[in-house]
Every structure is written in structure tokens, then in C-alpha cells.
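Subject: sequence -> C-alpha cells, single chain

Hey, anyone have a minute? Need the predicted structure for the following. Not urgent.
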Amino acid sequence: MQRSDEKEPSTTEFSLDSVTDESSATSSNSATSNESRLAGLFSPKLFVVVFLASLLGAFLGGSIPIVGFIGRFLGLFAVGFGVGLLSGRSHYVEVGLGGALAFGLLWVLTTLTSGFAFAPFAVELLAKYGLAIAGAGAGVGLLTTIIGHYFGRDLRDGLTRDI
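Reply:
Had a minute. Here:
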């Protein structure tokens, strides 16, 4: 005879869909319920990949001789576009946070190493306005990668839809 708090053994196989599905979450334990709802919202592995790809894309885009600064935006857009095109699910959170963090960091580093500002002036500028510079870079990175991800998902939808 089983105790009342034990569950009967299940004969169904484990699947990731059943873990992330809100309807299968038990209401007896709120921590387990919250974890199962958030499991499909954010992927730390994908975030790290998008962050590193955003750094690389912005660096490579910025190293193009004629377009330079605009190439950084194109590199970030390409990263968001690529994730949207290659992924079957939407990853707006990972793409947005990765692009925002990467571009905010790059704007701060660009302020320190830019050719028109020598070191003492750049350090003083960052001491006064560093948070605003990083915030502006993060906002631009967020918007650029989110827009790229949207267009990538839209193209994937158009390519995979039946005619």
C-alpha cells in the first residue's frame, strides 16, 4: 500500500516538452512551478554564444576600412539575424542581452582607446559619464540585435511556410 503523498510510477518517457509545459507543472511546490515556467525563457549557453558572437561581429564589422563604425552595427545585426534564421524558437531575451552587454562594453572600450581622445581626458570622461556611455551602447546593441533577430525569424518563417 502506498502512502498518500507518494505518486504512482509513470510509464511514460521523460521529455523536455513536458518539463517546460505550464500545464504539467505541479501547484504543490511553487519553486518547482516557477522553475518549469522559466526553463524555456532563458538559455545561459545560448546567451554566452550570442555574447561572444556579438563581440566578434562588432569587432569584425568595425575593422572594415571604409564603413568602420557603421560596420559594428551591421555585425551586431548579422548576429541577431543569424540566430533568428538558424533557430526554430524565438530567443529575444538571449539575443537582446548578449548584444546589449557586448555593445555597451565595446563603447566603453572605444572611449578609452579612441584616437581623438588621449588617456587622461578619456579616463576623466568615463569617470563622469561612463554609465551613460555604457547605457547608450547597451541600448543601441539591444535594439540592433533584436531587430536583426526579428528579421531572421521572419525570413525563416517565409522559407519554411507551405505555399
